[in-house]
Design goal:
The chain has 240 residues and is α/β, with parallel strands linked by helices. The chain is built from seven helices and ten strands. The structure holds 2-phosphoglycolic acid.
Length: 240
Amino acid sequence: MELKVLKSSKDIADLVSNEFINLIKEKPNAVIGLATGSTPIETYEAIINKAKKEMIDFSSIQSFNLDEYLNNQDFSQSYRYFMDSHLFDYINIKKENTHFPSEENYKNYDDEIKKAGGIDIQLLGIGANGHIGFNEPGTSFDSKTHITQLKEKTIHDNARFFKDISLVPTSAVSMGINTILNSKRIILIALGKNKAQAIYDTFNKYDVSCPASSLSKHNNVTIYCDEEAASLLKKELVHE
Ligand code: PGA
């Protein structure tokens, strides 16, 4: 795994958005894997700005999102709504080419990704407990897209987006770890002190207790951290 530590989240968003823009220029029918949460928002803003400036054409792009809540009472908290309002509504991607796992399609989701040609770049955040997508600690590294129960820690972390913690859905459907590892390239972004232990574990374990540690067996992963997220890693690992 390649580690890049940058001074600001803006610098990270700039580099990561360039990768997506360059991919789409080179491969207009690329397949991109997308994530929700606060971490990728600046990257999506940068993609929107560059797409406008450079007239980037997303009309043949397919996207597959990592995960979606189940039994969610509030559409404005759904990941579909998040993606529409942070990215899709501002680029010319066709909504029918934007895919989310659901209770109905999850058994076929891995096959749909394969049929589309496989994910060229998968973007990931990381949970404070090391989760990727909603693959909570304990999830098998061989897992495919599946239904999962959220851990207390994740429900608590996500409560900041809801009026009340009782409204946070307790189950979700998520790409599995194996689904993620089948991507050709993976970019993980970690921002803030709250992620420092998870990033430490990602580089120092290979164990289901830290789902992100599964990435160490993939040969094309870059982990972008700000200084706080990288703060527990030894200095010799950290290259600017
Ligand atoms: P965050 O979530 O970007 O809102 O911190 C990341 C995650 O839980 O994967």
